[in-house]
Design brief:
Layout (H helix, E strand, L loop, with lengths): L5 H13 L4 E4 L2 E3 L9 H6 L4 E3 L1 H7 L10 E5 L4 E4 L4 E6 L8 E4 L4 E4 L1 H10 L22 H7 L6 H15 L8
Parallel strand pairs: 4-6
Antiparallel strand pairs: 1-2, 3-4, 5-6, 7-8
Length: about 180
């Protein structure tokens, strides 16, 4: 953006970092202090690949769980990884391109965030992951706006029959006996 050689830009940014005017998110990615919300960090880290905040972070954002996640959980088309930044730690998890949908841009947090239905399905979709982070869901409370039919319709986007069956079973189990807030 400055029209200078990339090596010189790195020197300039390094000096700005020393003065706390900017900070480094990751290789080649910088931010101004106080101008980036934690929910915007996943997109900055995965660009040019897309990502959106989901899983426990979106569930908490939508008031579906009370436990505050200690990292920002996000879904991406890129490889899974944990990224530590000066703003927040980000836990990135990969889904297939066919299952990469169900989010909306929220201007108040400056990021794409999964809908309540998709955040819950993403959690169940990643249950077989080696990390074991998605084995148990904290106490779940559905918002009044949660649509069981919309959640079930989203299941059809999972290509793998065994994975779709697992997610459907976990969804049915989670929805049975759960009361909806405001109902």
């Amino acid at each position: 953006m400055l029209g200078v050689d990339p090596r010189h830009a790195s020197v300039i940014l390094g000096r700005l970092t020393e003065g706390d005017h900017v900070f480094r998110l990751s290789h080649g990615r910088w931010a101004f202090p106080g101008r980036v919300s934690p929910f915007a960090v996943p997109e900055a880290l995965t660009r040019p690949l897309p990502s959106y905040v989901s899983l426990q972070s979106a569930l908490y954002h939508h008031g579906m769980i009370e436990q505050i996640p200690d990292v920002v959980y996000a879904v991406t088309l890129g490889p899974p990884r944990l990224a530590l930044t000066p703003i927040t730690a980000v836990s990135l998890h990969q889904v297939t391109p066919e299952f990469f949908f169900g989010f909306e841009r929220l201007s108040n947090v400056g990021a794409n965030v999964a809908t309540p239905e998709k955040a819950l399905l993403d959690f169940f979709y990643l249950r077989p992951a080696r990390s074991r982070r998605f084995r148990a869901l904290p106490e779940l409370e559905l918002p009044r706006t949660f649509s069981k039919s919309r959640a079930r319709a989203m299941l059809t986007r999972i290509r793998s029959e065994p994975r779709r069956a697992l997610v459907a079973e976990l969804l049915d189990h989670a929805l049975s006996g759960r009361k909806q807030r405001g109902a």
